[in-house]
Design a protein that fits this description.
By secondary structure, the chain is an all-alpha fold. The chain has helices at about 10-20, 25-30, 30-60, 65-85, 85-95, 95-120, 125-155, 160-210, 245-250, 255-270, 270-285, 290-310, 315-330, 340-370, 375-385, 390-400, 405-430, 435-440, 450-460, 465-470. The chain is globular and about 50 Å long.
């Protein structure tokens, strides 16, 4: 039996598709490009607001307890992602994703616009800024996990890693753009100008999301996983039955251990956002330009890490442990060498580590988590990873009023080392999820297909060359 000859039309179509594949994902997929740009605007706005207000509190609004005020502000900014995780999971699972994204962006734009109008009048109370920060963080708590969950509705299965890279690079772009604009905007236009810029970004993002077309889950292309969608780290989700947030993590033991390691690490990495304005004021005696330089250094490193994370060799847990160790050294060094170039360079390195680790693990989670559990999982992931952020902000902010920023840098670096060691032990003592699944089913199958197991493992860990090729350098 011979194969049917390929017609000229089919050949042209195949060449056209191959040509499209060579384009960056955001250009060949307009829907994803619009939503991705919307995320750039929303996260850029919230980062600009955080950097700007942190500097405003330390330099202008609070003189005697600037560290505590800044730490409390950052705690307010991170609290909604933790407290609202169950509500976010239900909303993302129940409502159309485009509606959730559009409503979150529009709500944040309205809150920022209201603050801008208030700040135009007489003295702006600090409590009003805190309230606006809480509103923006609440909207962002819905936006971020909803976008991560909706990636399969926007791209083909082969583009998931590339889409994840673009999505995670958003945080780096936001850190870079927000860092450059936040403190400078406060120095030149005050909180009113800062809030007006955030409002414009949020409302533009809402318009972009409204123009994008989302596929329904049933219509999304791509073969069904052989394991029923459970990946390799837990049992398949029962169709029509949605697990609780605790049940989702209970079914994913390998993922749960990774999240615990990074939650512990976040107790110390999150402190950098409190330390930067304190270091600028008391050590460098600088202004908003210095804050912008340091924040931009951190954002630049994270952006480079997001684009190169797929090329970091090794299994995710082991590679993540090495990155955390390198980050510990980079964050501690400014405690010994208080110079601008040293601090800026160390922040570039620390940002690269954070960006590379995020790409490796979020792409892995996209493959391992069942489709039915993704709305709940990414909400609970955000909550688990963010649980330590309010604590870190308050502790390091309060300590900043009693200890020097150099001391805080040393504590930050030393505190990261146990998390790095725990992640290294996890990677060495426990097999990767696909390998564990192969071991557990070896006795049940009389004739297991070794090649299929190898392919499954490559899929679960496939955040390397395939992503780079499909995105044409998306990292």
């Amino acid at each position: 039996m011979t194969a049917a000859p390929v017609t000229d039309a089919e050949a042209v179509t195949g060449e056209a598709r191959a040509g499209d594949r060579r384009l960056p994902l955001v250009l060949r997929n307009r829907a994803f490009g619009a939503v991705w740009l919307g995320q750039v605007l929303t996260q850029g706005a919230v980062r600009m607001f955080q950097v700007g207000v942190s500097w405003w509190l330390v330099a202008y609004a609070v003189q005697d307890a600037g560290g505590l005020a800044s730490g409390l502000f950052m705690a307010v900014c991170t609290l909604p992602a933790v407290a609202l995780a169950p509500l976010v999971a239900r909303a993302v699972a129940r409502f159309a994703h485009r509606s959730v994204l559009r409503t979150a962006a529009a709500g944040a734009g309205a809150a920022a616009a209201a603050l801008a109008l208030w700040a135009q009048g007489s003295g702006l109370p600090v409590a009003a800024v805190y309230a606006a920060a809480l509103a923006l963080a609440t909207c962002q708590a819905f936006f971020d996990p909803c976008l991560t969950t909706s990636v399969p509705e926007l791209v083909d299965d082969a583009d998931i890693e590339a889409a994840t890279g673009f999505e995670l690079s958003t945080q780096s772009l936001a850190g870079l753009g927000g860092a450059l604009l936040g403190a400078l905007a406060v120095d030149r236009a005050g909180v009113a100008g800062l809030a007006a810029g955030c409002a414009a970004a949020y409302l533009s993002a809402a318009l972009l999301v409204a123009t994008a077309r989302f596929r329904t889950a049933a219509a999304a292309p791509g073969p069904a996983p052989a394991d029923g969608g459970a990946g390799t780290d837990g049992p398949a989700a029962v169709p029509g039955q949605r697990r609780t947030l605790r049940g989702i993590l209970a079914a994913l033991p390998y993922v749960r251990r990774i999240l615990i390691c990074f939650t512990a690490a976040n107790l110390f990495t999150a402190a950098v956002f409190v330390i930067i304005p304190l270091y600028t004021r008391s050590v460098f005696q600088g202004g908003g330009g210095t804050v912008a330089l340091l924040e931009a250094s951190l954002g630049t490193g994270a952006l480079i890490g997001a684009f190169t994370g797929t090329r970091v060799p090794g299994r995710p847990a082991v590679a993540g442990a090495y990155c955390l160790g390198l980050m510990a050294v980079a964050l501690a060094l400014p405690g010994l060498a208080p110079f601008r170039p040293v601090f800026a360079g160390c922040l570039v390195v620390a940002g690269w580590c954070a960006g590379a680790v995020s790409v490796r693990f979020v792409a892995l989670f996209q493959r391992l988590v069942p489709a039915a559990d993704k709305p709940g999982f990414f909400a609970v992931m955000q909550a688990v990873l963010g649980a330590s952020l309010p604590v870190a902000s308050l502790v390091f902010g309060s300590a900043g009023d009693h200890f020097s920023p150099q001391t805080l840098c040393l504590v930050q670096g030393i505190g990261l080392l146990p998390a790095a060691c725990a992640l290294a032990l996890l990677g060495r003592r426990h097999p990767e999820p696909a390998e564990a699944a192969a071991e557990s089913t070896a006795g049940a199958d009389a004739d297991p297909d070794a090649d299929a197991d190898a392919d499954a493992d490559a899929d679960a860990m496939g955040v390397g060359d395939a992503a780079a090729r499909s995105a044409g350098g998306a990292r």
